[in-house]
Known about the structure:
The chain is an alpha/beta fold. The chain has 15 helices and 13 strands.
Amino acid sequence: MFQHLEPYAGDPILSLNEAFQKDPRGDKVNLSIGIYFDNDGRIPVLQCVRDAEAKMLAEGGAKPYLPIEGAGAMRTAVQHLLFGTEHPAVKAGRITTLQTVGSSGGLKVGADFIKRWLPGSGVWISDPSWDNHRAMFEGSGVAVQTYPYYDAATGGVRFDAMREAIDKLPPRSVVLLHACCHNPTGVDLSPAQWRELVPLLRQRELLPYLDLAYQGYGDGIAEDAYAVRLLADSGLTFFVANSFSKSMSVYGERAGALSVVCSDAAEAELVLGQLKATVRRNYSSPAIHAAGIVSRVLGEAGLRTAWEADVAAMRARILAMRSSLHATLTAKKPGRDFGYFLSQRGMFSYTGLSAAQVDRLREEFGVYLIRSGRICVAGLNTGNVERTANAMAAVIA
Ligand code: KET
């Protein structure tokens, strides 16, 4: 029955993370997957999440199926987090939000929806982007192309080329944009660049699709929602998939959401209906435990304050690791400019290392990063950053 199957090559990120777990070397360093590790190299369980879970356990509630669109408390909390409680689009009821199975679930449901209701539309993703963006949209039958983004020469963004490419897209094309902390490069648009992009998106009648997977890891929880709020202010219709995997350190709970900002409440209701139909035939309904955590952490004042402090601390630790990496590499290789480690934001940086150099880092030094040269800065800590920088300097030659 299945002998004709092609063997699965494995996912470049998840397989490497598994290979790391199996590596017996005691001084190995995991910079592969987008997971925040604390200074002891552990995935933290935030106290606010523990407290939310303790409350849920004490309440001892039943575990019914959630509605297709998820828990009402979580959906409202997500809208307030992304757009602000007072945003006119929130008040007008023209945003519809569904709790999804991680933001991956949201991205995928949105992709299926686009295939069904805008069948002629293709999606344009940044060059480069998170590998799974292409896989998900192609899996939904949506054609995927790229717009210029990363500038290898400067470690910045090719904004003019990006704008020119977007200016040529057919109407109703989907433009996938990283709202903050671009994966894999760490290179974000500035607020001024976002403001330049908005009229272009409108004139060309494009459909922006924002991916907000690292909220709080860039410049702050509200600051990282800048693009989301700007687009909402501008009256554009757009999608935004957001994740709590990283910001609440709840990867396996699959906590995420999909919001669609529409032109009015009636359109939002139509969109919600068809998104529900899409969810029902995919995974039926999302996870109740995730909803309990997110709605409590966002909604209960004490937990919310604690969470904001936790996110600030995670962000500060990453920035400190960026500085250390930069300082050691600059000392080792004074002729080279490593300033991009300081200007890039969020969990990732693009090192510019070749696949061969990445292989050497893994084989000789036990330092794991994906072959594009992306590092997860959140895998660095005071105990391994210097050794990692020395290893990188050794392969840069
Ligand atoms: N969007 C982006 C940009 C992203 O980097 C990830 C995960 C996701 C969405 C999915 O998050 P979810 O947990 O479904 O809400 N990225 C890391 C892990 C992975 O590849 O699955 C990574 O890039 O390492």
